[in-house]
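Long-time lurker. I teach an intro course on protein structure, and each term I like to show students one example going from raw sequence to a predicted 3D structure in token notation. This year I'd like something fresh instead of my usual example. Would anyone be willing to generate the tokens for the chain below so I can use it in lecture? Attribution to the forum is fine with me.
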Amino acid sequence: MPTDRPAPTLLGRLVRVWGGDDRRGDVTTALTLFALGVLLLAMPADLFTWDPPPTAEPGPWWRVALLAVACAITLAKRVRPMLALAGGVVVTLADAALWGGSLGIMLVFWDLLYAAAMWSGPTARRWLWGSAVVLALGGAIVVGEVTRDVQVFVYAGLQFGAILLVPMWWADNVRQKAELAAVERARADDLERIAELDRHEAVRAERAAMARDLHDVIASHLSTIAIHSGAALSSPPDAARDRGALEQVRTSAVASLTEMRSMIELLRADSPRDPLAAPGRLDRLDDLLAAARADGTVVTVEDPDGVATADRPAAVGHALYRIAQEALTNARKHAPGAAVVVRLACEPGADGPVTLEVRNTAPRSGRAGGPGATAHPVSAGTGMLTMRERAEALGGTFAAGATDDGGWVVRARVPAGTTTTTGTTTTDSTTDADDGSPTP
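-- Reply from a regular --
Happy to contribute to a lecture. Here you go:
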């Protein structure tokens, strides 16, 4: 399959072989260096010339054996880089002192120097750099003093620098790039984890919003159906009364279907779900009161500031409507026959906080303790939690508890100029009984 990538050069192949990150690459490097060294030994080109030579010219196999020892040392460069470099220094000095040195041995020395600068620790690298700089400068100074020639001094300094410093500079450059790549990979992994957490939080917030809507919208109507059907079944037959109960059951069932259909349409919509698009605003408070009164509950409304009809943000009206709906449902379930007072108030100012209070007296049947006293068969036990979440999601407060006269009060205070905070919910661990009623 053709590609646009250029063919790698011989130098590029050697760089990838020498920069291998496993033991197989080390073996390949050692064999490559040995083959190059044998080829270079066939060329009569020693690095240094001694006059007179310190030893007689050895047989070719002696130099091949020394090269093989040097290449074998490179196999330990990854595990013991400094120790391998020390062995390479000994072999290089022996080759230079005895026979003038060979380019093959020098290649092995460069590889060991590169490995020491690449894989040794920070302290060892500092010592290695310091020693290399001192040796390069010291060698250049000694040569310059012996020859008394500035040009030779500079030339010697360049040679020593190329032999000792270039391999370490190359290793440092490769290591820094590898560290930067590792940092980028770690950063990419962190960003991926953060994105996954964000997705998880968004799903959790959406599920919590759906749970609140299902509880507030459907559970309220189902509770009304259960109350009316239970009352009809537990009383002697009465055609007029039973017909009224059936009418109320049908009304609640139709309302449940309407609310459910609206929620299904929201979930199927292509655009993001709007939690405020479900039916239910504070201006529909009269519908809640009518449903409660149809059950025989005496409900009184106190709204001196006209909060129910005022132009409020949709989030505020939606939250207060759902809180009032749940509070009235709880009062009818757990305090049958008790009088209920719904009070709305607004503090002065255009954006003054709105307070909703739903208070019921003690139940006529003698059950004390308010809405948390007796469990209801269709209750999910999350009423108090959802009311608290709706108020606190707008930056408001919520409280509920028993009153001194044996009744129950629910109070929510919501800033009028705020908008919903998606996914922000606060729960209270001190919940009890049917709807998680908090301890007063």
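Some talking points for your students: The longest strand covers residues 340-346. Residues 191-414 form a domain with the Heat Shock Protein 90 fold (CATH 3.30.565.10).
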